[in-house]
Design brief:
Length: 234
């Protein structure tokens, strides 16, 4: 069965735009002045206005944008989602389906063609929005900011086109089906369940070896959003 993935919705694009700017304002040294916008900041002025309208930003004493209390709460939730993504999904980035193994980023050659990225398939099996998982992955890698034209792309609404393309191209669960040695078909659902079981155990073992002392949020936090019908609702 060929299950075509749906396109990224306008609501998702709006939410990701807001989260992206909250992340940028919280972390970047490139402060945005309310009255003296440079050319890049002028490009995203409508996006900044949207943050103001949602009461997600305020001005500091020097008239620079900073997160409001509501914006900080939204950003804190985003950080927790990133931690959850890294704990529960990064393990599935490089999976050798033939050998039934997971890559060790510190020792394995990640460019090898044996690796399959199953993060989207895992998300879909768990009922988690795959676009949100890929968004968190790209945000963690700072992928959205690699081009100096990201301001323009955000303003034009095209910044997340690559995210959409990447998500749609990822392996689907039905593509994981195969015939075993006896000629019996092993369904993709069986494969992904086995992958998740092994991956979850390995991820936990790696955290223990690394003495990972940060509380790991449950993966369900990735499914939560306070953005509904074009607005932030608490």
């Amino acid at each position: 069965m060929n299950t075509k993935r749906k396109s990224l919705t306008d609501s998702q694009r709006q939410e990701f735009s807001i989260l992206l700017l909250l992340h940028r304002i919280a972390n970047s040294q490139d402060k945005i002045h309310f009255s003296f916008l440079d050319q890049n900041h002028k490009t995203i002025e409508p996006n900044l206005k949207a943050l103001e309208q949602q009461d997600l930003v305020q001005l500091d004493v020097e008239q620079h944008y900073q997160l409001s209390e509501k914006g900080q709460q939204s950003y804190d939730r985003l950080v927790q989602q990133q931690v959850s993504y890294q704990a529960h999904f990064e393990i599935y980035t490089f999976v050798d389906l033939g050998a039934g193994t997971f890559a060790d980023p510190e020792t394995d050659l990640l460019e090898d063609e044996c690796w399959a990225d199953l993060r989207v398939a895992v998300a879909e099996h768990k009922g988690i929005d795959p676009y949100r998982v890929v968004f968190l992955a790209m945000l963690s890698d700072e992928s959205f900011f690699t081009s100096k034209d990201w301001y323009f792309d955000l303003a034009m609404g095209t910044l997340f086109d690559e995210l959409e393309s990447i998500t749609k191209e990822q392996i689907r669960i039905d593509e994981l089906s195969y015939d075993d040695e006896d000629g019996n078909e092993v369904m993709g659902e069986e494969v992904i369940v086995d992958v998740i079981e092994q991956g979850s155990q390995l991820a936990q073992e790696r955290r223990e070896r690394q003495a990972f002392d940060q509380d790991v949020p449950n993966e369900e936090i990735i499914t939560t959003t306070v953005y509904h019908d074009g607005g932030w609702r608490w």
